[in-house]
Specification:
The protein has 212 residues and is of the alpha+beta class. Helix content is 26%, strand content 33%. It has five helices and nine strands; from the N terminus they run αββββαββαααβββ.
Length: 212
């Protein structure tokens, strides 16, 4: 039987240095995300979201990034879910993208806010019908008797709303406003490249190299 401790990988695909990175972390993220998409890595838009509840215990889950610009990183979910309840009490989170095939990780930390109703409406209405019904059918993070509960709920709301389900009030978008970024590029001999961006003012960032 093999041991996990014996697993090894040499990271040698690319490098990340100060002269080849951008001064604006959002531009660097845009470059890396587009490279992940063009490289056809699995789920390039998947990110881990970490939040902390009132019990001070962290929890994570994987969601999909749906938008990003100079204001921050956006995803959509059920506001009544566990992460929604945690963000209501502690509106700070950390995000992580891991593009294994490119040997890259991006970490982002910052304050979280809800996007506008107009933004949530626009995205909700762009979703497939089944997904819009699903937003009504799933009491996310709550205990249910079985899958039959979801199927019954979906049938009920499909009959009620037909082809035009409205956006539920409990469903919408969050935007993480970055205060700190880290870009990690795997390198040989575990001498990885790590560049951190720290915000000093609303529009100014300090770029620093961290020891791996």
């Amino acid at each position: 039987m093999s041991h996990i401790s014996d697993l090894r990988k040499s990271y040698e695909r690319a490098e990340l240095n100060e002269s080849a990175s951008t001064a604006d972390p959002m531009q660097q993220f845009d470059l890396w995300l587009k490279e992940a998409i063009s490289s056809e890595v699995p789920e390039p838009n998947a990110m881990t979201v970490a939040t902390v509840g009132s019990d001070l215990r962290p929890s994570t889950r994987v969601v999909l990034i749906k938008d990003y610009d100079e204001r921050g990183i956006v995803w959509f979910t059920n506001y009544n879910s566990r992460k929604g309840q945690q963000l209501a009490g502690n509106p700070f989170a950390a995000l992580q993208f891991h593009w294994v095939e490119l040997e890259r990780v991006v970490r982002i930390e910052g304050r979280v806010e809800k996007v506008s109703d107009a933004e949530s409406d626009a995205y909700f209405n762009s979703r497939p019908l089944d997904s819009r019904i699903g937003a009504w059918a799933s009491p996310q993070s709550q205990v249910i008797e079985g899958r039959g509960t979801l199927v019954a709920n979906a049938a009920k709301y499909a009959a009620q709303f037909l082809l035009q389900p409205p956006r539920p009030a409990h469903w919408g978008g969050y935007r993480l406003v970055p205060e700190q970024w880290e870009f990690w590029q795997g390198r040989k001999s575990r001498l990885h490249d790590r560049l951190r961006y720290r915000q000093t003012t609303e529009s100014a960032w300090i770029r620093e190299r961290l020891a791996p």
